[in-house]
Write a structure and sequence with these properties.
- With 198 residues, the protein is mostly helical.
- 63% of the residues lie in helices and 0% in strands.
- α2 crosses α3 and α6 crosses α9.
């Protein structure tokens, strides 16, 4: 199954967080966050968070009774497409557009000091401001439906498009509400290797 790329425009949405990042710090965070959220362990954690509640809801409302079994196969492909740092949610040129010029975002190696408070603030802001933003979610749903994902199911393309519309917004709503702060602290301290202000 070929995985397509999704471009997400985040400009201005996350910038309202308290984070004061350098371009170098943001670039480092974006690359590591993309690696983290597209890893197998993280994807299984995402499924654990949303599968039961979302699949129960769509089974009742839309008779999508195969949701639980199909999601085990389909979500890893979707997560790897939308959360990656090359063309997805954490693409540096969009994720860090408030902190980097175009030249910096292309060439930055992600070095420099990253403060823990800023890193955690920024990671906390990602789901808060983007995971159920109607424009972003609408764009992702459209991309899944018409820009490569559903087309691979030649005999059930329309069925796939319908299932995406029923499930994806609900999935992101659950992920937005998940208690991720401590996970973000762990990510910033151990993956980003941030330093404390104090």
């Amino acid at each position: 199954m070929e995985v397509y790329s999704v471009l997400i425009v985040l400009t201005g949405l996350i910038s309202s967080s308290a984070a004061k990042l350098s371009c170098q710090s943001c670039t480092k965070i974006s690359k590591l966050a993309g690696d983290l959220l597209t890893g197998d362990e993280s994807i299984q954690g995402q499924l654990f968070l949303f599968k039961d509640s979302v699949c129960a809801e769509v089974a009742e409302k839309f008779n999508y009774t195969e949701c639980s079994s199909e999601m085990e196969d389909v979500w890893p492909l979707i997560a790897k497409a939308i959360f990656n740092s090359e063309e997805g949610w954490f693409k540096t040129s969009t994720f860090c557009s408030e902190y980097c010029s175009e030249d910096q975002s292309e060439e930055d190696e992600g070095t420099g000091t990253t403060y823990c408070e800023d890193c955690v603030d920024y990671m906390d802001a990602v789901p808060k401001y983007t995971y159920d933003d109607s424009i972003i979610i609408g764009d992702v749903v459209y991309a899944l439906q018409y820009e490569g994902f559903c087309q691979q199911f030649e005999d059930s393309t329309e069925d796939c498009r319908e299932k995406v519309a029923h499930t994806f917004p609900r999935i992101m709503r659950v992920l937005k509400s998940a208690p991720l702060h401590e996970a973000h602290v762990d990510f910033c301290e151990n993956s980003v290797e941030c330093v404390s202000f104090s």
